[in-house]
Design a protein that fits this description.
Length: 89
């Protein structure tokens, strides 16, 4: 193994379209609304919050449980678990 290979070992690039598995719990910021549903985005991937999520979550950090995700469209549905923080903006 060359010095460069040793230096770069374990490095990877993040994707702008992450995917999720059903049952994954993630903490994300709610970034907007789309067709009446609150949306949390990670790069170009979107999770729509379920109808049971409280209103007024815009710019709040929330814990979500993924209930479905389409890898080809990078869109999914998620169940609201709890609010874990506020935006610093």
């Amino acid at each position: 193994m060359s010095i460069l290979e040793k230096y770069l070992a374990g490095w990877s690039f993040r994707t702008n379209k992450p995917s999720f598995d059903v049952g994954d719990e993630v903490e994300l910021f709610v970034t907007g609304r789309e067709n009446g549903a609150q949306i949390a985005r990670v790069g170009d991937s979107k999770l729509r919050l379920d109808d049971d999520a409280p209103d007024g979550l815009l710019d709040k950090r929330v814990r979500l449980k993924v209930t479905s995700f389409d890898d080809s469209e990078h869109v999914g549905e998620a169940e609201y678990v709890e609010t874990v923080g506020e935006s610093a903006f």
